[in-house]
Amino acid sequence: MVSAHCKLHKMKTKIKIDIVSDVVCPWCTIGYKRLEKAIDELGLQDRIIMEWHPFELNPHMPPEGETILAHLSAKYGSTLEEQKKSQKLLTQYGAEVGFTFNYFDEMRIVNTFDAHVLLAYANEKGKQTELAMRLVTAYNTEGKDVSDREVLKAEIASVGLDPKEAMQRLEDDDARYTVKSNEALWQRRGVTSVPTIVFNDKMAVTGAQPVTVFKEVLSELMEDVAD
């Protein structure tokens, strides 16, 4: 027989979700928005503990960045026509989950390490998801350079965090080392592509899976709690 106390404990059990991603990764944004939709449709908003972890798609990207067209051509050999087709598809998928991708020819891939340092800072303040969405919107929708510290400072302020304290964190060697260590940790765990979304430290989903897939995973985890 299950005691009333045990039942109450199970009712309040949380699902821990770790999201390994990069702020300039469009599929990460789509994956998160689909996950968010699954959480909302299942009414699990109050049952989720979420944490974002760093993954740099281009860790050696120089400060000036590189146009997306030139970068993808060099990295994957994709033609302009293929890239335009991909951007159209991403724009469509984004619209389906209420997110706007605004691609333009001079859009640049930039270095995202500082952004990840600030996301770690925001996690300490309980604002990590809010800042993550602010940064991906700044980059993908508003065409801002999220490697520019003035842009980062403004976005930090926009989510109600202390810009001065946050900017000091960017100069903190320990903070930067911690982010590097976190990146290496997830790579050792086998993460080679993003988004990688890990549920309760035991079930990983890679890629921007459909909402139905996320709902199945979440439902299965809730059943495990109920047993």
- On the 0 to 100 scale, the average pLDDT is 93
What is the chains' assembly state? single chain
**CATH-derived topology:** Glutaredoxin
Q: C-alpha Rg, in Å?
A: 19 Å
Text of the CATH class: Alpha Beta
Major sheet summary line: 4 strands, mixed
Helix content: 55-70%
Class computed from helices, strands and strand pairing: alpha+beta
Number of helices: 10
Strand order in the largest sheet: 2-1-5-6
Q: What is the CATH H-level superfamily? A: Glutaredoxin
Question: What is the overall shape?
Answer: globular
Strand content: 5-15%
Q: Brief overview, please?
A:
The chain contains 10 helices and 6 strands; from the N terminus they run αβαββααβαααααββα. With 227 residues, the protein is α+β, with helices and mostly antiparallel strands. A hairpin with a 3-residue loop joins strand 5 (196-199) and strand 6.
What does this structure look like?
It contains ten helices and six strands. It is an alpha+beta fold and 227 residues long. It has a single domain, classed as Glutaredoxin. The strands form two sheets. A four-stranded mixed beta sheet has the order 2-1-5-6, sandwiched between helices. A two-stranded antiparallel ribbon has the order 3-4.
